[in-house]
Amino acid sequence: MPIISSIKNKLLLLQILTAVFSIFLCGSLLTVSYYRMFGQSEQQNLETIAQVMSNNVQVPFSFGEAYINEAEKTLKAFQSDTSVLSAYVLYQNGAVFAAFHKDTTRYSLPRTMPDSSKTLYSYIKNDTLHTFCYFTVDSIHGYFYIQKKSAQNKVLLNLVATTLIVVLISLVLGIVSALFLQQAISTPISSLIDTMQNVAKQQDYATRVTESGDIELRTLSQVFNDMLLQVEKRDASLQEIKHQLEERVEERTKELQDKTQALQLSNNELQQFAYIASHDMQEPLRIIGSFSQILAKRYQNTLDNEMKEYILFIVDAVGRMQTLIKDLLSFSRVGTAKMQVKPIVLSNLLLKCTSNLRFAIEECNAQINYADTLPVINADETKTLQLFQNLLSNAIKFRKDTIAPIINISVQEEPTEWLFTISDNGIGIEKDYSEKIFMIFQRLSTAYSGTGIGLAICKKVVELHGGRIWFESEKDKGSTFYFTYKKDF
Ligand code: ADP
Question: Mean per-residue pLDDT for 214-239?
Fold first, then answer.
């Protein structure tokens, strides 16, 4: 991992760089200003010396060449000053009156004399300071000229070196303090972060952080450990509750399974009972019906009209009872008969269905429309035939008096199921009956023949195929029945 990949290291690096840059900037400014100040003071000093010395050499200069030695003696005072390279007493035209120079190789005289309007004139050239002091004695004009090695560059070098040393020391100090911080703060914090990450990943709340480092870090570790302890306790109680809940759910599921089993058993018994009762009731009913008809035939001359009407009532009631029992039988058969699922060619099934209903269709001139090619589905053929037959016969039965029924059948493939639609242009159903009509014996009008079992059978068949059934309708505007079959059957 690169050393500056973490924010912490980046901040440290930034701090060190800022400190080093500030020190460097301060050092540079100080160096420049001190360098200039030093130059000025060096020049002033030399000018003062030049003034003093020019006063001293003025007397021998005024006495002429016989006193050159006197003047040179005075100039020799510079012998002890190592920085003075040479000193001269010059005539106004630049000719030498007296001279002093330490090193002949560095001895040089100015080519032109400075303007005599200024008493003092200085300049710096090749690291050497040159100063002229103009004087007049007894109407004779002259110059005192001194060359001194400037210490300005030496001072500059010293200052730069000092600044660099300070920068270097602060850099080293910065790195050392960063390492110290790393050891004293970052390492305990990193260990805290590692533990936190482990706790988050493995959810092991029994882990504890080692309490190390300064007081604040130790407090932080303590607080984190306390928090872990609390979470551990809470986790344990949660596990306990979860365990209890699981046990309870298991108990309830078992109870539910037992109840479902008991319900299934009693349901089977009930269906069996309904089947046997309906089956066995058919025989006495048939006897009542046929004997009533025999009675009516045999005594048609002796029975009065009222009695004949009573017998007709009996025959009619027996007929209705027989239909009811027949329908009940088919209802209970739907539940008891085993599902026999196989691929069904839907168009063949609809052909069979319309053929079974041909009398009803012909009677009212009903028009039944469906696509030429319909899918092949996996289903129980007998039950599906009954389902279509019930829905189609209802669409025909509940037609309007004024128009012939038009019935449209369609099938749509959905991701997991088949969606069937059967719409008619019949009398329609009021919205309030949406749930009710799928219940057994529920009829909306007695003006039409029927037992109220047809749609209950449809619902059962659809549910046995893992689907649902519903309708959309408005009174006098026809009805559309929808049902679905699960595809993977
Ligand atoms: P039944 O047809 O023997 O009366 P069903 O269970 O088949 O019994 O139908 C229940 C009731 O739903 C019917 O009595 C009728 O009122 C209403 N119904 C069913 N299908 C239609 C339809 N296509 N149009 C109008 N009403 C309908």
Answer: 88
- Split at pLDDT 50, 70, 90, the class of 4 is low
In short, whether 396's Cβ falls inside 6 Å of ligand 1 is no
Q: Match domain 7-167 to its CATH number in 3.40.50.20, 3.90.550.10, 3.30.450.20, 3.30.1130.10.
A: 3.30.450.20
For 400-432, give one letter per residue: b (16+ CB within 10 A) or e: eeeeebbbbbeeeeeeebbebebbbbbbbbeee
63 contacts 56 by C-beta, under 8 angstroms: no
Strands in 67-156 per DSSP E: 84-91, 96-101, 120-125, 128-137, 140-149
Residue from 320, 398, 425, 474 whose mutation best tests the ligand 1 pocket (most atoms within 8 A of CB): 398
Q: How far is the CA of 390 from the centre of ligand 1 (A)?
A: 9
Specify the residue with its C-alpha closest to ligand 1, atom 20: 394
Q: Where do the structural domains in the chain lie, given as residue ranges?
A: 7-167, 338-486
pLDDT confidence of residue 276: 79
The residue whose CA has the least distance to atom 12 of ligand 1 is 437
Q: Which of 112, 127, 108, 121 is nearest to 51 (CA)?
A: 121
Summarised one tens digit per residue, pLDDT across range 380-397 is: 999 999 999 999 999 999
Q: Report which DSSP code applies to 414.
A: -
Ligand 1 neighbourhood includes 427 CB (under 6 angstroms): yes
* 3-state SS class at 417: strand
> Does the C-beta of 394 come closer than 6 Å to ligand 1?
yes
Residues present in the chain in total: 489
Q: Which CATH architecture has domain 338-486?
A: 2-Layer Sandwich (3.30)
User: Residue 392 Cα, ligand 1 centroid: separation in angstroms?
Assistant: 11
Distance of CA 443 from the midpoint of ligand 1 (Å): 6
For ligand 1, the distance from its centroid to the CA atom of residue 437, given in whole angstroms, is: 7
For residue 443, the ligand 1 atom closest to its alpha carbon is: 14
